[in-house]
Structure formats: structure tokens, C-alpha cells
Amino acid sequence: MNALPKSVAPPLRLLLGPGPSPVDPRVLDALSRPTLGHLDPAFLAIMDEIRDMLRAVLGTENELTFPMSGTGSAGMETCLVNTLEPGDRVLVGVNGVFGARMAEVARRAGARVSTAEVEWGRPVTADVLREAARGESFKALCVVHAETSTGALTDVAALRPVADELGALLVVDCVTSLGGLPVELDAWGVDAAYSGTQKCLSCPPGLSPVSLSARAQAGLAARKHPVQSWYLDLSLVGSYWGGERAYHHTAPINMLYGLHEALRIALEEGLATRYARHASVARSLAARLEAMGLELLVAPEHRLAPLTSVRVPAGVDEARVRRFLLERHAIEIGGGLGPLKGAIWRIGLMGSGATEANAERVSTALSEALAEQGRSVGSPD
Amino acid sequence: MNALPKSVAPPLRLLLGPGPSPVDPRVLDALSRPTLGHLDPAFLAIMDEIRDMLRAVLGTENELTFPMSGTGSAGMETCLVNTLEPGDRVLVGVNGVFGARMAEVARRAGARVSTAEVEWGRPVTADVLREAARGESFKALCVVHAETSTGALTDVAALRPVADELGALLVVDCVTSLGGLPVELDAWGVDAAYSGTQKCLSCPPGLSPVSLSARAQAGLAARKHPVQSWYLDLSLVGSYWGGERAYHHTAPINMLYGLHEALRIALEEGLATRYARHASVARSLAARLEAMGLELLVAPEHRLAPLTSVRVPAGVDEARVRRFLLERHAIEIGGGLGPLKGAIWRIGLMGSGATEANAERVSTALSEALAEQGRSVGSPD
Fold it and tell me: What CA–CA distance (Å, rounded) separates B55 from B90?
């Protein structure tokens, strides 16, 4: 190769997109502590603490609760390949990219997939699922709690009765909700859930917390076919995280230090306080954006606190706006995905990024970016 | 939950087991730099640098060369699920845990697997593969370059003619060799290879470099069935690492900073110098251990420089020896796996851990540990 590149010197960005979110310096510091062996007794103790803290933020007593060694999409695949066997019927509520991804992952696991399609930006409801189910039985009902591609919140607790009618396990994507919105797996009757670390936990990406109910775990033990993924096989991974400590793969030690610290920060603040902070800051952001004459994609009652989707006004070059924010203000926000590409911006106020000051900074910067394109907008203040 | 745990305070260990290896402070420091978004232009530039440096250590010009967002076992699964389709025939050389794991992962991918079984501690040879193949055709021939469970080195270049006879892609595990032993994918004619970061690259675990030849990449484009794993689908992951930069999953940003720095360190030293250092230190360790009257598992001509396997003398409590090293000397070494459990110790002098001082420290400590069990041994000096 040519000359060796210089050591990485990442510019400081204010991460206000759909994730990763701003990482607390305490978490960055934890990442750089001395690496331990994955079977060192000192590390096994850290693993147990991570599991306890994860149970607290997930609202569960589930024994099988730990972070998978991959990002949120690995957690999605984990939940699906472990609960489904070839030929199983699955019903997926699709109201954005991540619902569609669940359907695709389930198909690749050999399941027969039905989808309940919902307009993007709207929540998945019991009615639409019942209609799509046509009175038939399913092995699993899959929904996204907080759809990161649109900013819409689905009421998961309201879907447990539907899952019961279908005879289905309830599988839930909590990637963008965990740590920023109440997640109550046990109270809601969720059977399998996964999340990511780089949203409202404000930890760098790289791990995916998963949790399985006792019922889902029993199903795992009674499988007829091996889980198609060896890397994501929860029976094997669970033997490492659980009592036996059997070697499966080498855990990402330093990333786990980071998650440990991120969970400590969330629990120190207190979950109720943390959720209230996300909600309050999101209301402030919405008010500022609407005062500028901008329109939000999601109706107020279904908006995600951690992520706000804003419609791009007609005639505005949306990519140029994002470039302006990044280059002039060092602020990252997200664009739309799939059918919403070019149509929305996604602004995340997540984890340590969910502050009133950031709501103000991003709306002021957005106002300037629009003015730079000759769009006169109302004041965000 | 009960009281919040304290922030992690990992004890300092000298990691001389089968991995993770000692991490250079420069790598730990890189981990804690500010997190960027996974589509930030500044991050995309870092990704390109990582790819270039990976190609250099892998000895390849392969376009499809990048780290997967999981540990080495995820890389193994990546190479197998992307090259194999259901019903494909695979021949796996099995001379340890990781060959056996390749066979299991290939089975779970729906392949029809034949194995060429070799005594653990011995290399996989062209002869044993030819015998197991019985003149039939195979889609892939899989071997482990450096078998971490035994410390045996297989001559990969010598197996390309066999792969040609079988009409097979050559798939190679380079987990414990990369950065510590010459790896020359192009010169050897390897079609798919994977590695880990926590061995001779001295980076924490969490990423798995993979590389596919043009031929394997063409096979990927011509598949009849989708890759069973969405997370590990190289067509999709390649669109993110390649020209299109299409969002697939959120890359583990900070871990990638660490890998970037680890690769810089390896290339700064120079690969030839680095391999010579590993070889020289391994010879010194072997001489010390044999001077103590200990017997090594692998014959001298097949020994891995990065990892030395030592037979546990009859009557010695091997777990107590490892505990003694950890508690009295803060040195981690590994035990045996599978049929070698209880029968060997595995001592890794990998990456920044491959020093003459460490060879001396671990052999002296081992000598003390044996004396503590009343075993008089020769002096390691």
C-alpha cells in the first residue's frame, strides 16, 4: 500500500440524527480500560452486572437477557432465527423500514411471512393486525415499538391480546425506544425483544441487547431444527452468559465496558426522569419546528420522543440542508429512508443528546439552512 | 434492581492465552475518540483507510475486503453462508475446534458436509483431503490456517491444487494467523477468508475482517437463493463498505477506530519484521518450556508462532496452575478445548504480547506454579 494513513482524528460532531447519538465522555473513557480475557472471573462479574442493569431498563425479569455481539440488526436476526423454524407462519406489522426488515429476515429464516401494511408515519394497531391475520394462527407476531425510519410509536401493550388470539409469540424491536421511552417487556407480555446501544443509551454502536421470555426460551429448547445461525444461537450464547460460562465466541470486551457505563448513567439518572426529559425536549423541538412553519410527519399522539420527523418543504434541496448543518454547525441529522427518501429529515434527541440546548441549536441551524436556500421561515423561538 | 454497580475497574492482566492478546495503549486510546455517524464523510474516509490496510495484511487486492460487525465466528459464518447454497457439497479439514465449527456452520447453512479428520495437533494435508474427497466435486474446501485450539499450522498454499481438483472455492480461517504469520490470500489462491482482531493484531475483540476473491464475489452475484443471514449478507454489507455507501446497519464506529490504529501499528513495524518477531519469541518460549521438561503438543515444523500448546504433566491440576498464574502473576493463559480439555495449556505470544520478556515471564511463572504443586521442573533459563 501507499503511505500509512494518520491516526484517526474524528471531527467533533453533534449527533442529532437517528443514531448514533452523542456518547457521554464517561462511556468513551470506559471503552479504553484494560482489556480482560472473556473468561476472566473479573470479566464474568462485569457481565452479570450488565445483565442486571439491562433487565432494569427493559422492565423484565427474563433470565435470558444479555447483549449480542453485533449491532441492532444482529439482535433482530437473533430474535427471529431463534423463535422461528422453517415453515412457521409469521405476521409482521410494517409501518417503516424496520418492520419491512423484520419481514425480510423472517423470510430468510424460512418462515411464511404475512405483513400488515400501515401507512409510514402511523402506528401499527390491533385492528390492522387482526385484519391481516384473517383469523389464522401464527407462530410469531412482530412489531417495531419505535419505528426509527418514521418516528412513529406503536402501543405494544395493546397488541398482546392480538398475539394471544393468533397463538403467537410477541416479538418487538426496541432499538430506538430503549432508555428514552418506557419499555416494560414483562408488563406488556413481550416474548422476544432486541435493541441497540447507539440510540437512547448513548453508547457507541456494536452491541444488541436481547431478551426472551420463559415461554420463548422453552420454545427454543423444544426446537426441531437447529437455529440456522451458529453465531446467533441463543442456546449457545446463553451458555456463555449464563451459569455454565461455556466458551462460544470471544465477547467484545471493551464495548461491554462501554455499555456497562452507559447503563449506569441511565439508572443513575432514574428511568422515569430520563423518559420525562426525552418527552419534554421533544415537545420543545416540535414547538420550535412548527413555529418555523415546518410540518411534522407524525401526529402528536403517535410521535416518538427520541426521534422527530420533519417534512421537507417543497422546493428545498434536503441533502444541501443536511450538508449545511454538518459543515457550518457540525450537526448531524438524518434524511429519509425508502419511500421517505428526500421527503423528511429525522432529528434525534436521544440519550445524552436530549437537551433543551440541542433542541434550540438544531432548530436555529435548520432555520439558517433554509434561509440559505432563500426560504424565509418563522423564528424557531 | 439493587444498588448500582461501580464503574468497571478491570485489573491489569498480562494476556498470554489464545486471545484476546495485550492491546497497545494507542489502540485503547483510539477507541475513546469522538463517535461519528456511520455515513459521515469523515467516517467514510476512515473506512477506506481500514480497507487498504486490511488488504496489505491479508496479502490481497480483493475489492471485497472489510471488517464484519461481529467477532471472528461471525466472520466464519459470513464466509460460509455467502459462498454456500442449500445442498452444496463442502469438504472441511478438521484438526481442532475451529475446523469442527466450520463444519457445523456449513451444516446449518444447508450444505452437505464431508470432513477430513486429522489428529488434533497435526496439520491438514493435501493427502488427507484427497482421501476424504474420494474424487468427488465440492463447492468449497474449508481449512483453518492456524488452529487456535491446538497450535498447529496448516500450509494453505499447498491446498490450492486440491481445491482445483475438487472444483472448489478455498475458504480459510485466518483468525490466529493474521498479523502474526504471513497471510498471502492472493498468492495462495484463497477465495474467502476471515479473521479476528483480538489475536495478532492486538485490538480488542468485536470485529472480523473478511475478504472474498473475484471468483467468490461472482458466485455471490449469481446465487439462486438469498443468503440466509441478512446481517451477514455480503452483497448488502458490501454496498455500505463499497461505492454506494448504502445504509445497511450502523457500523461499530469506535471499534473501527481501534482496528484502524492496530493496523497502523502492524504496518509501521513492517509485516516481515512482525512475523520474524513472533517466530523468534515462539522459539524462545519453546526452548524455555522444553528446558523445564515440558512437552509441546505440536511437532516443531508445524507449530504456530503465535500460540504454543503445552502438555499438562501427569498428576498436575491444570486449572490450579492457571489460577495460580492469574492470581499470583496476573498472567492469563488458556486451557484446552474439546478432547484436549485438561490435557494442554495454550500460551499465546501474540501481537504486542509477543516479546522476549513475556516469554520469560510466563515460563518462570509456570515453573513456580508447577513447583507449588510439588513438581520439580528444570529451570526455564
Answer: 27
Question: What is the Cα A372 distance to its own chain's centre?
Answer: 33
Q: What is the pLDDT of residue B196?
A: 98
Q: What is the pLDDT of residues A240-275, one digit of tens each?
A: 998 788 899 999 999 999 999 999 999 999 999 999
Q: A340 to each of A77, A309, A312, how far by Cα in Å?
A: 24, 10, 10
Element (H, E) at B50: helix B41-58
**DSSP β-bridge partners for residue B217:** none
CA distance B263 to B241: 18
CA A220/CA A222 separation, integer angstroms = 5
Per the DSSP assignment, residues forming a β-bridge with A114 are A91
Interface of B with A in 145-184 (CB under 8 A): none
With bands split at pLDDT 50, 70 and 90, how would you rate the model's confidence at A378?
A: low
- The DSSP string of B186-232 is HHHT-SEEE--SSSTT---SS-EEEEE-HHHHHHHHT-SS--S-STT
* C-alpha–C-alpha distance, residues B173 and B196, integer Å: 9
Give the mean pLDDT of A177-200.
Answer: 98
| Cβ-contact A333, A318 below 8 angstroms | no
Give residue A374's region: left, alpha or beta (phi > 0; psi -120 to 50): left
Summarize the confidence of residues A45-58 as an average pLDDT.
Answer: 98
Best CA proximity match to A204, nearest among A22, A337, A29: A22
Looking at residue A46, what is its pLDDT? 97
Distance from CA of B255 to the nearest CA of A (A): 8
- Contact flag A33-B249 (C-beta cutoff 8 Å): no
Residue numbers in B near A229 (CB within 8 A): 77, 108, 228-229
Using only C-alpha atoms, chain B has a radius of gyration, in whole angstroms, of 21
B8 touches chain A (CB under 8 A): yes
Please tell me whether the peptide bond between A20 and the residue prior to it is cis, using omega within 30 degrees of 0. yes
For chain A positions 210-229, those within 8 Å of chain B (CB to CB) are 226-229
**Residue B244: predicted pLDDT:** 83
Chain B window 82-121: which residues touch A at a Cβ cutoff of 8 Å? 101, 104-105, 107-109
Q: ∠B301-B306-B312 over CA atoms, to 5°?
A: 75
Distance CA B190, CA B188 (A): 6
Give the number of other CB atoms < 10 A from CB of residue B189: 18
Percent of chain B at pLDDT > 70 equals 98
The complex's ipTM? 0.97
Question: Quick one: DSSP state of residue A354?
Answer: -
Per-residue confidence (pLDDT) for residue B243, from 0 to 100: 76
Q: Name the residue with higher pLDDT: A195 or B245.
A: A195
Binned at pLDDT 50, 70 and 90, residue B29 comes out as very high
Which domains are seen in chain A, by residue range? Answer: 25-267 (3.40.640.10), 271-372 (3.90.1150.10)
pLDDT band at A379 (very low <50, low <70, confident <90, very high): low
The predicted pLDDT at position A1 comes to: 66
Residue B187 CA neighbour count, 13 Å, CB half: 10
Note the pLDDT of residue A165: 98
Q: Give me the helix-helix angle, B253-269 and B271-291, nearest 10°.
A: 80
pLDDT for position B381? 62
Q: Would you call B35 and A20 a contact, using CB atoms and an 8 Å cutoff?
A: yes
> In a 10 Å sphere around its CB, with 0-12 CB exposed, 13-18 middle and 19+ buried, how is residue B290 labelled?
middle
What is the reported pTM?
0.97
